Amino acid sequence: VHFPDVERVEWLNKVLVQAWPYFGTIMEKTFKEVLEPKIRAKSIHLKTCTFTKIHFGEKCPRINGIKAYTKEIDRRQVILDLQICYIGDCEIHMDISKFNLGVKGVQLYGTLRLILEPLLTDAPFIGAVTLFFMQKPHLEINWAGMSNLLDVPGINVMSDSLIQDYIAARLVLPNRITVPLKKNMNIAQLRFPIPHGVIRVHLLEAENLVQKDNFLGAIRGKSDPYALLRVGTVQYRSKTVSRDLNPIWNETFEFVVHEVPGQDLEVDLYDEDPDKDDFMGSLLINLVDIMNDRTVDEWFPLSKTTSGHLHLKLEWLSLVNDQEKLHEDKKGLSTAILIVYLDSAFNLPKNHFEYSNGECGAKKIKNNKYLKKTEREPSSFALLTVGSKTQKSKTCNFSKDPTWGQAFTFFVHSAHSQSLHVEIKDKDRDSALGTSVVCLSHLLKDPNMTLDQRFQLDHSSSDSFVKMKLVLRALNVEEPDPQRVKAGVSASKQGPVHVMEKDGNQQKFVSPPKSEVSKVPPLSKDTAVLESQAKKDSSEDVDTNDSSAAPVASETIAGLNETESEHNPEHRPLSALHTRAAVVPTLPVVEELRLAPSVASLGSLPSSCFELSSSNLDLHNGTEMPLGEIQLTVRYASIRQSLVVLVNGCRNLVPSSNRGVDPYVRIYLLPDRRWTSRKKTSVKKKTLNPQYDEKFEFFESLEDVKKRTLDVAVKNSRPFISQEKKELGKVRIDLSQEDLIKGFAQW
Question: Is 228 a domain residue?
Answer without folding.
Answer: yes
